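Regression check, adenosine-5'-diphosphate case 517:
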Amino acid sequence: MNNKHKILKDIFGHEYFRSFQEEVVDSIIQKKDVLTILPTGGGKSLCYQLPTLLMDGVTVVISPLIALMQDQIKALNDLNIKAEMISSSQTNDENSFTMQKLLEGKLKFIYVAPERFTSNEFVGVLQRININYFVIDEAHCVSAWGHEFRAEYRNLDKLKRFFPDTCIAAFTATATKKVEADIASSLKLNDAKHFRAKTHRNNLDIKVEPRITNGRKQILNFLKTHKGLCGIIYTFTRKEAESTAQFLCENGYSSKAYHAGLNPSIKDEVYDDFVYEKIDIVVATIAFGMGIDKSNIRFVIHTSLPKTLENYYQEIGRAGRDGDMSYVYLLYSKADEVKRKIQIEDAIDTGYKQTGLDKLEAMYRYCVSNNCRHKIIASYFEDEIDDCKTLCDNCTKGEIEQVDVSVDAQKFLSAVYRSEQRFGTNHIIDILRGSKNQKLLEFGHDRLNVYGLGSDKSKNEWIAIADKLIDIKAVNLGEFRVLKISGLGMQILKGKEKLLIDSDKLGIAQKFEEENT
Ligand code: ADP
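Current build output:
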């Protein structure tokens, strides 16, 4: 048995390397720059921890979150490996003490946030010690095309300027090819080896459904059919996290809320209760989960539409890290998309705005699509995989009765056409339902002959029809989400092609409408 296999077994306690781990470890040992894209749970930490144990110096790990650093350091210390951090959560004295240990060569790992590299003192210390290599965790934060861009990560181009001979190992769970290229060029990686796992978690069973009212009945049904399992429920707001946790307790499920507004001791308690299985369910905002050290999470539920497919993929990736079958369930509504849009419009600088809106659109399209869920996710990350056939609701639902909505589709397309293909879905639905909306009246759209022609259908039924037209690309979304009719759309408009829709899609839209009125 060679050294690396011995370390894998004796120190980390694993029999075999998982896919890509050995190749990444070898490249790091050979002092090559590497960029590794492995899904959550793929075992990235081991890739950069193991080679250090075959080297004399210290490995510098750059990580965006103190909580992540703490988890990693604890895990390493538990293995009797000396790891510490320098961070704003420690006093100046503590940080100086750690720097001293670094200079004395007493540490194997030092964890720091990217902003540390703005300190000349820190860079000066690094220049005086023997660095094995730099690790950049959550490397997608480097790229403005990614979903969590952080300006401090941009400055990491300094690494190659100050340490031209030290190799860099960058890791992320989520990067499109564009983001991957951007990471490599921003960090000035030198002829880096790229490792990219397929974006496919074949132990996740995916289900997506429109949310009916607040989704609680749906959640209870899910929990009834997945009895005794432990999992995370992600909510949109802190308040919703609290009230849902309470609701679940009242219904006999042991659960607690977790969000950024809780004080640290409560957060630690919830985390420990979950990890040590005193409770089954944590109801959380997205604050929970990064770096969570629990490999047997059996389900992840989202009670509303996530911001991006990157976020979603990362969050569902927390289920089933041990490789056993796990279940993910997403509840969404059109209203979530509207809320998220407002968030993006309000919060983010204009450079990111369009990217943010496009990412949100892709997330919503994922929800309303009829295609294999695994395949949509993979193709979003520019991977090609076959339909999963057995692991998502779209592949397993079998024959669903189809309703012919061709005449409604013609009405819809006609309204798009007559309003000169300059408006979005909501405006078109307003025309069809004969709304007295101010904007509509200002444009004189109450005088169009399609005005009020669709008042027999609910708003949600129209949304279901519009979603289907977008899904099959009968209409395309232009700038500002304006609808443009495609060649296929013209065929439908002229009655030369039919539009069929799954009866359950319309059915759920109707039910949603009834329960909301
Ligand atoms: P990531 O950072 O890619 O999300 P982690 O590094 O946290 O994943 O690893 C996920 C889980 O897989 C951890 O519980 C880890 O101990 C385990 N693991 C990593 N490598 C192996 C391996 N070769 N064999 C078995 N388990 C492994």
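Comparison notes: Residues 287 and 447 are 50 Å apart (CA to CA). The first strand starts at residue 34 and ends at 37. No diff flagged against the previous build.
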